[in-house]
Amino acid sequence: MSQAGALYDIPGPRTVQRHRVYGVLSVAVILAVLGWIVSLLLTTGQFAYRKWMPFEYQGIQELLLRGLGNTLKAFALAAVLSLALGGALAAGRLSDHRAVRLGATAVVEFFRAMPVLVMIFFIFVALRVQPLPALVAGLALYNGSVLAEVFRSGVNAVERGQKEAAFALGMYKTQVMMYVLVPQAVRAMLPAIISQLVVALKDTSLGYLITYEEFLHAGKLIASNLDYDLPFIPVVMVISPIYIGMCMLLSWFAGWVARREQRSPKTEAVDVVAAGPEKLLPGGGPPTAPRP
């Protein structure tokens, strides 16, 4: 008899063999697609030395490094502002005052529904803001609104009895939030926060549309302004792995945090002194029962 699992029965020998065949066929299809793509790149001469030669120039290397630095700078500013704005909006949505709560809700819903590119263009064109502040402002408004919902959901996920017990001890609401609810909610919020920061990192590439000299903008300049038969594919093959690597690093960090927080807390063993004969106080004797 087969042992039953939590959601399904353990597969038998025929099912295991069939799954292995499916796996082999899937790998074969993936390898075939990759081989077809590589053959197309070879046929069109994308690996020719002439198209990769520009990356040997020091000026182009400095351009790419400068663009990467601008991307990281925009991401750092957007991440800090998003976290601050998200915390402020979450506090507003959790407020006991109806006017504050409705105002914060309206702001969150508006900027969550507004496309990031539209906000960046509006700030850059209509308000005539410089490229970097326009990019950072658009990213902060959108991601801050999303993080506000993450913060609010994390606080509301804490067991209700924790809040009631804190109020029963005479704490004010600010003290309850700072010392009871938020520290417990951080465990549930961290993976979602880091995942949203991955989105902010990828959205920094929208800066090239407003002439901000970030990493993708540097690649576009290389592909369009050099007389090397437009080395567009080589530029993509250089820039894409770096973007993917940064996003995967943040995603790995989010997964590491999630796995770490899911572990049950462990207590260290404490050495206990073995029990021995009791020492009597000076002038004292062993306890005796009172006489009748």
Summarize the helices and strands and which ones pair or pack.
Layout: H1 13-43, H2 49-52, H3 58-93, H4 98-113, H5 116-126, H6 131-156, H7 160-168, H8 173-203, H9 215-225, H10 232-262
Number of strands: 0
The residue-averaged pLDDT reads: 83
Instruction: Enumerate the spans where pLDDT stays under 50 for 5 or more consecutive residues.
Output: 1-5, 266-270
Shape: flat
Return the structural class. Answer: mainly alpha
One letter per element, helices H and strands E, the order comes to: HHHHHHHHHH
Helix % is: over 70%
By DSSP (H or I, 4+ residues per run), the number of helices equals 10
Strand fraction: under 5%
Distance between the termini: 73 Å
Query: How is the biggest beta sheet arranged?
Result: none
- The Rg value, from CA coordinates, equals 30 Å
Give an account of the 3D structure.
By secondary structure, this protein is mainly α. It has 10 helices and no strands. It has helices spanning 13-43, 49-52, 58-93, 98-113, 116-126, 131-156, 160-168, 173-203, 215-225, 232-262. α3 packs antiparallel against α9 (215-225), α5 (116-126) packs across α6 and α7 (160-168) packs antiparallel against α8.
